[in-house]
Amino acid sequence: MPHPTRADLDAARDRTVPDVIATGLAVLFCGINPSLYSAATGHHFARPGNRFWPALHLSGFTPRRMTPAEQSELPAHGLGVTNLVARATARADELSAAELVTGGERLRALVGEHRPRVVAVVGVTAYRVAFGIPDARVGAREEGIGEASVWVLPNPSGLNAHYQLPELAAEFRTLRMSLD
């Protein structure tokens, strides 16, 4: 897959990336919003340096490290991907609190329609704003979304210096092991 040019990235602003979803998934991962790189390629977590795909594999969710271009294979593993906010931005801090709250409402509707077993929001700060829970921490949540359990996972962006890949994969693994 060729890397997007600067012009491709500029043109991707405010584009969306379609959800990868099916009814009855084990886990629906929910990102904050697509990066310009993801919007330019049409694939979730596509930016080089994003650790979502390596963490998914290292935690045992997938039998091998998948690429963003293989996202359509996720439902075969009981997994899906969506975003709180659909529009692409260069940085998540370009989103307003109102957009995140609206995204939380959209996620509730999506969960009601597709009934995943677990919703895993990757980004604790966005989760806090979207759902009005300012003290939320990484891990299992007491509150659910509809009938789905909720987990908050660290943001897999390479910009998240608080979690390196081994720690990120460990958090993903804790979620995976809870499914057994």
Automatic annotation (TrEMBL):
A Pfam family recorded for this sequence: UDG
Keywords attached to this entry: DNA damage, DNA repair, Glycosidase, Hydrolase
Entries under InterPro entries matching the protein: MUG/TDG, Uracil-DNA_glycosylase-like, Uracil-DNA_glycosylase-like_sf
GO molecular function, one term: hydrolase activity, acting on glycosyl bonds
Start and end residues of each Uracil-DNA glycosylase-like domain: 18-173
Keyword Transmembrane assigned: no
Domain of life of the source: Bacteria
Keyword GTP-binding: no
Gene3D superfamilies: Uracil-DNA glycosylase-like domain (3.40.470.10)
EC number: 3.2.2.28
PANTHER family xrefs: G/T AND G/U MISMATCH-SPECIFIC DNA GLYCOSYLASE, G_T MISMATCH-SPECIFIC THYMINE DNA GLYCOSYLASE
Family matches, as NCBIfam families: PRK10201.1
Name the record gives this protein: G/U mismatch-specific DNA glycosylase
Taxonomic classification: Bacteria, Bacillati, Actinomycetota, Actinomycetes, Pseudonocardiales
